[in-house]
Amino acid sequence: MKKILAIVMAVAMVMALSVTAFAAETEIALTTDNLGYYNDATEVDGGLNSSGEQFVVSLPEVVEKGETITIHIKGTSDGDFRVWLVNGANTDSDLWLSTENGFAGGEFDYTIDLTMNDHDGNGDTSSDGINFKGIAYGTNLDNFTLTYLAIVTDGEEVVAESSDDATEETAEASEETAEATEETTATTTNADTGVVLAVLPMAVAAAAVVASKRR
Questions:
Q1: What whole-number distance in Å separates Cα of residue 169 and Cα of residue 167?
Q2: What is the dihedral of CA 195, 197, 199, 205, to 10 degrees?
Q3: Where are the alpha helices (DSSP H) in the chain?
Q4: Which residues are CB-neighbours of 174 under 8 A, at least 6 positions away?
Q5: Is 60 exposed, middle or buried (0-12, 13-18, 19+ CB in 10 A)?
Q6: CA separation for the pair 25, 145 (Å, rounded)
Q7: Quick one: which of 148, 142, 61 has its CA closest to 112?
Q8: What are the C-alpha distances in Å from 72 to residues 25, 152, 213?
Q9: 16: which of 73, 103, 158, 185 is 20 to 30 A away, CA to CA?
């Protein structure tokens, strides 16, 4: 029974070594000072509003050719709209259309991937803004209000010692730890919530080992 619990504890510890970070979002200022080549928008409480043809929000960093940027947009609109990357007046990515994503007016909340591919073939090597425009050529935005715009960065998975060898070594160490538990009791307080979640499997396994020793 002792060996079985030791193995369970080892597996739990190895699983706890793999922690995935949450996605991070860098918010972009929605002010008229941050408008790009097209600037047919006005500041409203909490964002930018337009019933004009289009407007561009400048990016904090350029997107190089071949790179993909993920943006998160929120707001409201009485009509459909399009979104794409630009460099000045040049279209630099394929167009994202609200009509192809189930939008029928009202509030919207979308996460969009845009790839810089020099869509217009003007020789652009980078993009410096995000364009918001009416759903078709010659149409205007319809009471379009952008309340949130951010660049999304995916979390990276960090894995440490997940091999079979590491599992065997952890199992042996856990047996020694179980024996030492009879003589020494250690109390650890984790202030960081993320650390608590990562260590939880180890705590459960350790508790099982201690319980078996008392029988």
A1: 5
A2: 170
A3: 2-16, 164-181, 193-214
A4: 6, 9, 10, 13, 205, 209
A5: exposed
A6: 20
A7: 148
A8: 8, 7, 52
A9: 185
Record the tokens describing residue 105, joined without a space.
Answer: 């007016």
Please tell me whether the overall predicted TM-score, pTM, comes out greater than 0.70 for this model.
no
pLDDT digits 0-9 by tens, 57-90:
999 999 999 999 999 999 999 999 999 999 999 9
Helix/strand/coil for 41: coil
pLDDT tens-digit readout, 114-146: 999 999 999 999 999 999 999 998 899 999 999
Kindly give, in sequence order, each residue whose CB lies less than 8 Å from that of residue 51, ignoring residues fewer than 6 positions away.
140, 141, 142, 143, 144
CB 115 within 8 A of CB 67: yes
- From start to end of 18-67, where are the E strands? 19-20, 24-27, 35-39, 42-44, 47-50, 54-64
Question: Angle between the 193-214 and 164-181 helix axes, to the nearest 10 degrees?
Answer: 60
User: 22-36, 122-136, 145-159: which has the minimum mean pLDDT?
Assistant: 145-159
pLDDT higher for 179 or 67?
A: 67
**48 near 41, Cβ under 8 Å?**
yes
> CA 124 from chain center: how many Å?
27
Query: ∠ at Cα 109 (105, 112), nearest 5°?
Result: 110
